[in-house]
Design goal:
The complex is a heterodimer of chains A (291) and B (281).
Chain A lengths: L1 H10 L9 H17 L4 H15 L2 H4 L4 H17 L13 E6 L6 H14 L4 E6 L6 H12 L3 E2 L7 H15 L3 E6 L7 H14 L3 E7 L6 H11 L4 E5 L9 H9 L3 E5 L7 E3 L2 H9 L1
Helix pairs in contact in A: 1-2, 1-5, 2-3, 2-5, 3-5, 5-12, 6-7, 8-9, 10-11
Chain B lengths: L8 H13 L4 H17 L8 H17 L13 E6 L6 H14 L4 E5 L7 H12 L3 E3 L6 H15 L3 E5 L8 H17 L6 E7 L5 H13 L3 E5 L9 H9 L3 E5 L7 E3 L2 H8 L2
Parallel strand pairs in B: 1-4, 1-5, 2-3, 2-4, 5-6, 6-7
Antiparallel strand pairs in B: 7-8
Helix pairs in contact in B: 1-2, 2-3, 3-10, 4-5, 6-7, 8-9
Bound molecules: guanosine-5'-triphosphate (2 copies) and magnesium ion (2 copies).
Chain lengths: 291, 281
């Protein structure tokens, strides 16, 4: 961890009245290495380290009795600031909410849709799951099974219907059933697949979701920035959900996707069960990334 | 990736950035850059404008890292060749099996696939659709059944049907879940008990966009159920899959196939030359 990485740098300097700038810069190089090993994007790492350099070269470090601790404190605080200072909050309108989940193949959208529905039902909302993935074998069946387990109704129109229409009919169905929150599961897609990106753009244009949430696998490496940037620029997202945080991945992707989109990370997927959806906690994520 | 100018520190920094951005990882990148710098000194290429020499040299260093190990699938001397497909959640195991089944069938082989993911919602239905697409027989588990019993039933079926190849789908499982890894080694033991020398391959499926955690995944699966190779999926995205350099170097695991899409034909044998060239594209 950072503490042990810094030991070599600052130990030799204890007892001196002034810590050299050189030592601080060396410490920042260790921060850079730790970030890259934790899968934080290269450019995000560079910009982050530049940003904290000024603070790190300030009096609070150079005249400190424990400069290593001071640098760690600065890094930690800057990370929490970047990750979004308070825990994620999904703000839903009082009336009808339309939540669209998008993201790359296998990131956890279908499972997260059911988890989110269950969580919102527990908070007093009346959700409907809507099966917008008409491509993946047995995707609709998968949503039906997890929906059933979550105790949430599932709306589907089979695989021959345009997802735009499925979404709109889903909302009509919700209205008739007195349900106020439609959660639309969509097919996994590559951010560079123009046809598939056009599909979600069409859904957005016609169905007008109140929220578009990008679901990102927390084990993703440098590519996280590409994914998040393309979805945010090509579609516009309102927030993100980071999944599979029950793994031992350091999760530097969290920094990357925040850095490139500025959108909030709202939830953390922490397992395969339907209750495994937590609020996103920036402070816990920061500690985890630093290792 | 645009490299231009002369071979100086700025260019080498750009090269280092390209490698890290391709998920090659710090340790492997530094090792490659150090060897590259040695070669630059040795062949007196400092400040030379011979960029082609530079990229060719780096690519050959990377190819050397990928050359060892057998990239072909092991075939059983007697009885069916049994391939066990494992990996963490959502990486593309079930889809890869559908593609492999079609490929083996087109090679004139009798294929049997096994739906041993009895845990995840609609996993069995998903593989069943692939068995219809590939037109191969399938052994179905029932949801909630012990996956080892499904594997056992599949081994009995294989003794009767005598297929050339058996490919077994397993539930996604995080390498951090010891009980799930134990479940997997139990499945592997059932296979080797029924057929000597089986499974001929235990392949870890890795998503090309995975970061450094892929190394931990490979290490842990290798230790607990043994691995003979990798399948690298979703190479049709923007991720380069550079982490397999470290997996190959540290654990000797060769990539046997890459997934390049969601269609039944989107599986290709791994080509180290194409892979290293694409890393720089
Ligand atoms: N361990 C763990 N597994 C998860 C989590 N979220 C989802 N999964 C698993 O990840 C795998 C993929 O989840 P899906 O919900 O099918 O992912 P998806 O994004 O809908 O996939 P596509 O529709 O094919 O793009 C499944 O095995 C899930 O059980 C999580 O937070 N932790
Ligand atoms: N673009 C692309 N998508 C792929 C590739 N391989 C698999 N997928 C997609 O990735 C998603 C997950 O694939 P699955 O085969 O369900 O993955 P899995 O490992 O069996 O998932 P679990 O059983 O839930 O752990 C699906 O949407 C597939 O279509 C590939 O090579 N390229
Ligand atoms: Mg899905
Ligand atoms: Mg599967």
């Amino acid at each position: 961890n950072l503490q042990s990485r810094f030991q070599g740098i600052f130990r030799s300097l204890t007892g001196k009245s002034r810590i050299s700038e050189k030592a601080v810069k060396e410490a920042l190089r260790e921060v850079r290495m730790a970030f890259l090993e934790a899968d934080v994007n290269f450019k995000a790492t560079k910009d982050f380290c530049k940003k904290i350099e000024t603070r790190a070269l300030g009096a609070e470090v150079l005249q400190s009795l424990s400069p290593g601790q001071q640098v760690i404190k600065i890094v930690h605080e800057a990370m929490i600031e970047l990750l979004g200072e308070k825990a994620g909050i999904l703000e839903l309108p009082a009336g009808e909410a339309r939540i669209m989940l998008v993201g790359l193949q296998g990131s956890g959208k279908t499972t997260t849709a059911a988890k989110l529905a269950k969580k919102l039902a527990g908070e007093g909302r009346k959700p409907l799951l809507c099966a917008g993935d008409i491509y993946r074998p047995a995707a609709i069946r998968q949503l039906e099974v997890v929906g059933e387990r979550a105790g949430i109704p599932v709306f589907q129109m089979g695989t021959d219907e345009d997802p735009v229409n499925i979404a709109k009919q889903g909302s009509k169905h919700a209205y008739r059933q007195g349900l106020d929150t439609v959660i639309l599961d969509t097919a996994g897609r590559l951010h560079i697949d123009n046809e598939m990106m056009e599909e979600v753009q069409r859904i957005k244009k016609s169905w007008k979701p109140t929220h578009i949430l990008l679901v990102v696998d927390s084990m993703v490496g440098q590519d996280a920035v590409n994914q998040a940037q393309h979805f945010n620029e090509g579609l516009g997202i309102s927030g993100m959900i980071l999944t599979k945080l029950d793994s031992d991945t350091r999760g530097g992707a969290a920094i990357s996707i925040r850095y490139v989109t500025g959108k909030p990370i709202l939830y953390a997927g922490t397992g395969e069960k339907l209750e495994d959806l937590d609020s996103f906690h920036p402070d816990r994520m920061a500690s985890r990334i630093l290792g | 990736f645009r490299l231009r100018g002369k071979i100086d520190d700025d260019l080498l920094d750009d090269l280092e950035e390209a490698l890290i951005s391709a998920d090659v990882g710090m340790e492997t990148t530094l090792a490659l850059m150090e060897e590259l710098r040695n070669r630059i000194r040795r062949e007196k290429k400092t400040n030379s404008t011979d960029i082609n020499w530079l990229t060719d040299t780096l690519q050959s260093l990377m190819r050397d890292m990928l050359e060892q190990g057998d990239r072909t699938l092991k075939v059983a001397e007697v009885g069916p060749s049994i391939y066990l497909i494992v990996g963490v959640n959502g990486v593309g195991k079930t889809t890869a099996i559908g593609k492999m089944a079609a490929r083996f069938k087109s090679e004139g082989k009798q294929v049997l696939i096994v739906a041993a993911d009895t845990f995840r919602a609609a996993a069995i239905e998903q593989l069943e659709i692939w068995s219809k697409r590939a037109d191969v027989p399938i052994v179905l588990g029932s949801e909630g059944a012990d996956p080892s019993s499904v594997v056992y039933n599949a081994m009995s079926a294989a003794k009767t049907q005598k297929p050339d190849v058996v490919v077994i789908d397993t539930a996604g499982r995080l390498h951090t879940k010891t009980n799930l890894l134990q479940e997997l080694s139990k499945m592997s033991r059932v296979i080797s008990r029924e057929f000597d020398g089986a499974p001929q391959e235990t392949l870890l499926v890795l998503d090309a966009s995975t970061g450094q955690n892929a190394i931990t995944q490979a290490k842990t699966f290798l230790q607990s159920c043994g691995l003979t190779g990798l399948i690298l999926t979703k190479m049709d995205g923007t991720a380069k899959g550079g982490v397999i350099l470290a997996v190959h170097k540290q654990l000797g695991l060769p990539v046997k196939f890459i997934g390049v899409g969601e269609g039944i034909d989107d599986l290709e044998p791994f080509d180290p030359d194409a892979f290293t060239r694409a890393l720089f594209a």
